[in-house]
Amino acid sequence: QVQLVESGGGLVQPGGSLRLSCAASRNIASGNIISGYTMGWYRQAPGKQREWVASSTPGGTTSYADSVKGRFTISRDNRKNTVYLQMNNLKPEDTAVYYCRWGVGAWGQGTQVTVSS
After folding, report:
1. How many angstroms separate the CA atoms of 68 and 74, rounded?
2. Among candidates 59, 56, 61, 98, which has minimal Cα distance to 76?
3. With 0-12 CB in 10 A as exposed, 13-18 as middle and 19+ as buried, what is 58?
4. Is the model more confident about 35 or about 75?
5. Phi, psi of 75 (to 5 degrees)
6. Which pLDDT band holds residue 1 (cuts at 50, 70, 90)?
7. Residue 6 CA to chain centroid, in angstroms?
8. What is the pLDDT of residue 29?
């Protein structure tokens, strides 16, 4: 069973930046956990449904929601079993709990991002 732990959230002013991390692990010997899987970032704002933000395929293809394109960058380090989300020029509407997902399976517990002056 794969466990995901997000980190890096916090309070930032509009226009600021944050870098989220998502570390994957499992109870048995870890090895390569994420290398063969599409990894995704999602977010859920208060009172709204969870929405997809960005994805990274095993081949290195990345894709983004229109609302974050040009501001957010997803990357991965397969050796560290970690996925990142670099978020620049943050806006108040980016405020949400951010989750990562392993393939179409495990979810992390989320990390809060608040953009406010």
Report:
1. 11
2. 56
3. middle
4. 75
5. -145, 170
6. confident
7. 7
8. 66
